[in-house]
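> @MW can you paste both from yesterday?
MW: sure, first one:
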Amino acid sequence: MTSDGSPIRRLTAALRAGDLARVRSVAAEVRHVPLPEALAILELIEAQDETRFEPAAVRWAGRLALEAPGLTLAQLHLAIEALDGLPDDEAKATLRAFARRAPPARQAGAPAPSSARARVPPNFL
């Protein structure tokens, strides 16, 4: 940790500032980017780096499928349609609601659940 605070706090500050380069740099230091923050990163990528948006959106949808308990196929389909609809405000609201379904971030140093360990990369980017 630096004098600027924890990596997750620096990530939040970089997201608020809309600084994609800084977001990428700090996200690399975060062991697990929570799904809502990963969505904020995705929205920033959509706005500033269109060529990387689609691969990042696919990764985010994969994480949603793995991390949101009880997510149905129809709900995943709706989320994918919302990803395709970004930057529309209704699409953002839909995705934020789905992102909040994922459990809160794990404590630093806590192992990932065994079912997610092999399939979910430790970081969004």
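MW: second:
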Amino acid sequence: MEKRESYLLNRWKAEAIERMTELFNKGTSETEKLKGKSRANVEFGRKIVLTESEESLIICNQVEEGNPADKILLVPTVRKSIKVPKKVATDRGFYSSKNEREIQDLKVKHVAIPKPGKKSEKRVKHERQHWFKRLI
């Protein structure tokens, strides 16, 4: 029974990925890859921003043309939420002190965006807090 469930789950996952690829690749132009993984020499011309709930359900999505910086996508994505989230966590690509301030101004209780590069002692302490580590 476990083998059958595993097979079905993997099959459904593959079908979902295929459908998403078809949906978002329509009319997408290929662009030469300038950086990133060396094994791929082509990138597609759209960026998809997905917002997940704590249960890992996709609750919001947006498709951006080209390859805009993650930093400029974060605050509009949080504002687009139906209700203000209690917690926001992203990877370091979304970091900017302005983003942190703006999201906190929206009354988000915990904002966990790791700062790239060299960090001050105060920042290191901030990122070592239990809630911050748990969100990341």
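> thanks! The beta strands are 30-32, 42-44, 46-52, 58-65, 87-89, 110-112.
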